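Reviewers of the previous submission asked for a worked example of the structure-prediction workflow described in the proposal, so we include one complete record here. The input consisted solely of the amino acid sequence. No template or homolog information was supplied to the procedure at any stage.
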Amino acid sequence: MSSRDRKIAVVTGASSGIGHATALLLAKRGYRLVLIARREERLRRVAEEADHSDGVGDENHVVMPADLENEQAARSTATEIVRRFPTIDLFIHCAGYGIYKPFLELTTGEEDALMNLHYRASSRFIRAILPGMLEAGAGQIINVASVATCWGPAGHSAYAAAKCALAAMTQSLACDYAGRGIEFSCVYPGIVRTEFFENESYRGLKHQADRHGIEPGVVAKKIVRLLDRPRPEVFVPASHRILAWLHAMSPSLTRKLVASQSAPRS
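From that input alone, the workflow returned the following structure tokens.
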């Protein structure tokens, strides 16, 4: 299969964690990858891994380093992707990080950065990519949110707000373009063992991540499974859906439970 015959998948946050694991699974399925993240050297290593696992071996995966916290960088990267690939088959927004601080200790700059990366970056890419999908009458958009959208944990006011915005946008897009051949999905992982918890602000939560976290590959498999069985939402692990049900039944009980589990411990 030549490069021109392969489906195109754009993956943000592809240099590590869920994005990295997802990119490699997509390569095995024959996708040509457009890999986006801040760290160019690590992106190139992921592209090399994908070349070795895709069975094609023509080194055709594309690396596009960009800091998606910067709105202009996100916009220009999205524009360049569409210029090079007028039709994108799959967009997966995995890019993300968190800051664990009480609301009044969080700066407005930190707040804006989280909103830019989690929500606005996805919006910029979808705005650029979706018209081509609509013209083709096919395509899939998958946003990786968080179980934090069910009830914002302690210390995550801006992170939870940004993920809620991402999830709500995904739901509205599905309504706006229902019946047009595009599948929209949102993935809600719980604690995942990634570099997310290497941020100094998470020092007090590191033991919870080590004890309760799941591997990025577990989430990646759930994401890739959506290609065969599209669904509006997926919780990883599936048991986390209970939190959404509990919130619907008893918001006060959910608040107490989440607060006790998300408080830092020495």
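The beta strands are 8-12, 32-37, 62-65, 90-93, 139-144, 182-189, 233-236. We consider this example representative of the routine output the project will generate in years two and three.
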